[in-house]
Structures are given as C-alpha cells and as structure tokens.
C-alpha cells in the first residue's frame, strides 16, 4: 500500500499548489479514486476482450456503485482517523537523497517487467 500512500501524497501536494488548496486532502482522495477506477476499468475491459472476465459492468448503475465504493474505501483508508496526516509527515520528512533513491529503485523494477512479459 506504499504506492497508494505515495500517490496520495503527490496528489495532495499538487492540489496544494492548485486552486483546490483548501480541500487538498479531499481532492487528493477523489483524484486517487478516479485514477484507481480508470486503471481497474481498463484492466477489466482488456480481460473482457480476451474472454477471461465473463461479466463486466453491464449497466451504468454498476459503474456508479463501483465508483462510490471506491470513494468510500478511500475515505476510510485516508481521511477517517486522519491517516493522511501521517502519510504527509512521512513523505515530507523524506530527504532528497532518499526520494531519488526510491525513484531509482522503482525505475529498475519497471524496466525489468517488460523484458519478462511484454504485455505488462
């Protein structure tokens, strides 16, 4: 879940610089929910096209329920209990060297995956 924490932090920081700085924690949660939905929707569509997923969002109501459930999940995961403050302090205290080291390590992992399976 560190990836979600880091994405939340980056979206939070972007919202602080933009026009949503008053509600940055909520806006970051909503943006992250949208990104998760788009990611899962694309993966689900791809699996449906391959015939590996027999049922995939047959109506708009199912999509709306799924999006709302993502909002609720993200609310309880980030906002409820003020967990977002813990995430922000964790990444704000990160040094430039540690941040670059993390980026370098994550880039290595992403470079290896396509060589193992080109469809990733």
What does this structure look like?
The protein has one domain. The model has no long low-confidence stretch (mean pLDDT 82). It has helices at residues 2-17, 24-50, 60-79, 83-92, 96-116. The protein contains five helices and no strands. It is mostly helical.
Gap between N and C termini: 20 Å
Low-confidence segments: none
- Report the principal-axis shape: globular
Chain-averaged pLDDT: 82
Strand content: under 5%
Structural class: mainly alpha
Query: How many distinct helices?
Result: 5
Task: Please report the total strand number as a whole number.
Answer: 0
Largest sheet: none
Radius of gyration over all CA atoms, rounded: 17 Å
Give the number of domains: 1
Give helix % range: over 70%
Secondary-structure element series: HHHHH
Write the layout of secondary structure elements.
Elements: H1 2-17, H2 24-50, H3 60-79, H4 83-92, H5 96-116
Helix pairs in contact: 1-2, 1-4, 2-3
Task: Provide a concise account of the structure shown.
Helices cover about 80% and strands about 0% of the residues.
